[in-house]
Write a structure and sequence with these properties.
about 220 residues, alpha/beta, Rossmann fold, 8 helices, NAD(P)-bd_dom_sf, P5C_Rdtase_cat_N, Pyrroline-5-carboxylate reductase catalytic N-terminal domain-containing protein
């Protein structure tokens, strides 16, 4: 049986932490950065052994061919102008990014924030509905600190004993695909609703960087 493959855009601390957790759970990983695959290979041998370095334009190829057509966006928000929406066309894009107050953000993202929108909604317009790429955006994995990802992902434990991972999405199928990925990684996914609800997952929100269980997350829902 062919192993599922997930693409990860970004090979920094968050991207490689996600990669290690997925690889440990038997999920293949393609990963890219601003460096060429050849230049990235040594970095991955240290920080994500087993992950395959690819060009950004190739990040979605294997995950679309081998399912579940998921790409994780794990780049700093200040660098989002460097991400071509066509790289992730026809995928479920997991927005694992966060806004930090000292970042100089792209003008389109700052404009959405100025309108009091959660960043996930602005990214959905940029990469999904507003771009014609067929991308369906899901907010997930951003509220778990990169240094906690591996210890939080415990596939050997029953769901009730795992760390909760909030998921927000407008599309039910996309939400289901990401929740399935999180279960396989060893987390307990909890739907918090549509993308507007993702505000509680942001750095100033009640879920951010807190080791919560399902009941803790549900307490913050309307």
């Amino acid at each position: 049986m062919t192993e599922p493959v997930v693409g990860i855009l970004g090979a920094g601390r968050a991207g490689t932490a996600f990669a290690r957790a997925m690889l440990r759970a038997g999920i293949g990983v393609d990963i890219c950065s601003t460096r060429s695959p050849k230049a990235l290979r040594h970095h991955l041998k240290i920080y994500a052994p087993g992950a395959a370095p690819v060009w950004p334009a190739e990040i979605a190829e294997r995950t679309k061919a081998q399912g579940p057509a998921i790409v994780v966006l794990a780049v700093p928000q200040e660098e989002l102008d460097d991400v071509d929406p066509q790289w992730v066309a026809s995928t479920v894009l997991v927005d694992a990014t966060n806004r930090w107050h000292d970042e100089l953000l792209p003008s389109w993202l700052q404009a959405g924030i100025d309108e009091q929108l959660p960043t996930s909604m602005v990214l959905a317009g940029r990469f999904g509905a507003g771009s014609g790429t067929g991308v369906r955006l899901v907010k997930a994995l951003n509220h778990i600190a990169h240094h906690d990802v591996e210890s939080s992902a415990t596939p050997e434990l029953p769901l009730a004993q795992r760390r909760a991972a909030a998921v927000a999405a407008d599309d039910d199928d996309a939400r289901g695909r990401v929740m399935g990925l999180l279960v396989r990684m060893g987390l307990d996914p909890v739907s918090v609703g549509a993308l507007p609800a993702s505000r509680i997952m942001e750095p100033d929100g009640p879920l951010f960087n807190r080791p919560l269980r399902r009941a803790d997350v549900l307490r913050h829902l309307p």
